[in-house]
Amino acid sequence: MNLLEVEGLSVTYRSDRGEVRAVDHVSFALQPGRCLGIVGESGSGKTQTCLAIAGLLPREARVSGSIRLRGRELVGAARADYDTLRGKQLAMVFQDPMTALTPHLTVGSQLCEVLAVHEGMRGAAARRRAIEIMERVRIPDPQRRFDMYPFELSGGMRQRVMIALALILRPALVLADEPTTALDVTVQAEIIATFRAVIEHTGTALLLVTHDLGVVAGVCDEVMVMYAGRSVEQAPVAPLFATPAHPYTRALLGCLPRADRPRGERMVAIPGQPPDLAALPAGCAFAPRCPQLVDRCRREAPVLAVLAGDPSPPAAAADVRTVACWQAGAGS
Description:
The radius of gyration is 21 Å and the shape is globular. By secondary structure, the chain is of the alpha/beta class. 33% of the residues lie in helices and 21% in strands.
């Protein structure tokens, strides 16, 4: 049974050049205890999708479609409705822990405040619960760090505090927006291991927004690739890395640094630039950058459909691979 169901989600803004659709009819589902990674270049709609689910979009954003969390419709929900959901049902880990944490409050006071507001828990009981979650997200010496301020912690430790804040009420769903971007490679690996351990221990579902396919490989069960606000490919992690079906997915994977490349070989890059969302082409948005372009790509925008001839047949309905490309699988 799905915990989160998103159907036909669109996020639109008005601009001087007309309407800009940051998210364009995106659909996906997430089951309890699973991790879905949303990947793509900057401006592809990843963060807008995450903020729409969390109810944190600016007032000028127009949201349509459906977002259901445990069957409860969130599109059009009032702020008071979201206030009852945030913390206990869904929580969010932001990209920059230094700006997300309150700088003049200790780590412990921020964790205990969540418990006081949502569960009425205070004093020694709240401290015990806070230290317990700090231990679970692998913060060393939590008794001492409980009384420290955010500026006294490293970037990795601050991000672990953010994860602890998100998990302290044991929510069903955690939304993480680029949680490893500002961290070095070693700390990234530690944060990935923390996420994986928490998912396995608590059964919390994780929606992970990232541009880093290495992070996806280490944490996620499923992947949704976005381009120009649309979902262009959805698949379980292993098949997507082994046999990517969409040219954009292959291009992203081709940009990954590899230790087995000859010394001195130049890094691979995707030619061109992401499209202007206020002036998208009539056909496929990726067409100007695609090496497999055919005439139909310029005329018609492909729709997301089940991948024909998938070499890895699904074990369950949740494992069905879908792709939006007229040349799906060609060149893989």
